[in-house]
């Protein structure tokens, strides 16, 4: 069910929002609905840490300058040689 909602905000914000909506071929109502949905949606387990991860936390001591992206890249390059 759709319900009408009246909101008040600065004219300049409304104009910018209308321009954005037009540029992206979407209604202003849909943008606001999507935003409010994402803001209020419960993200179950998003911050939950599993017992295994808790147990493994702190097991490896890496230097502060460890570049995990480079190491992973090197690993993939070696794997797919």
Description:
The structure is a single chain. The chain is mostly helical and 81 residues long. It has a domain of 27 residues. The protein is built from four helices and no strands. The longest helix has 13 residues. It is elongated. The termini are far apart. The model has no long low-confidence stretch (mean pLDDT 88).
Radius of gyration: 23 Å
Let me know the number of strands: 0
Share in β-strands: under 5%
- Beginning-to-end CA distance, first to last residue: 56 Å
pLDDT averaged residue by residue: 88
Overall SS class: mainly alpha
Please outline the major beta sheet: none
Number of helices: 4
Into which percent range does the helicity of residues fall?
A: 40-55%
The sequence of SSEs as H and E is HHHH
Described by the principal axes of the CA atoms, the overall outline is elongated
Task: Flag low-confidence runs.
Answer: none
């Amino acid at each position: 069910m759709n319900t009408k909602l009246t909101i008040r905000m600065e004219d300049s914000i409304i104009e910018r929002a209308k321009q954005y909506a037009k540029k992206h071929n979407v209604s202003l109502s849909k943008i606001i609905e999507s935003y409010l949905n994402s803001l209020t949606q419960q993200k179950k387990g998003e911050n939950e840490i599993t017992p295994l991860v808790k147990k493994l936390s702190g097991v490896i001591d890496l230097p502060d300058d460890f570049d995990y992206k480079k190491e992973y890249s090197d690993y993939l390059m070696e794997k797919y040689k």
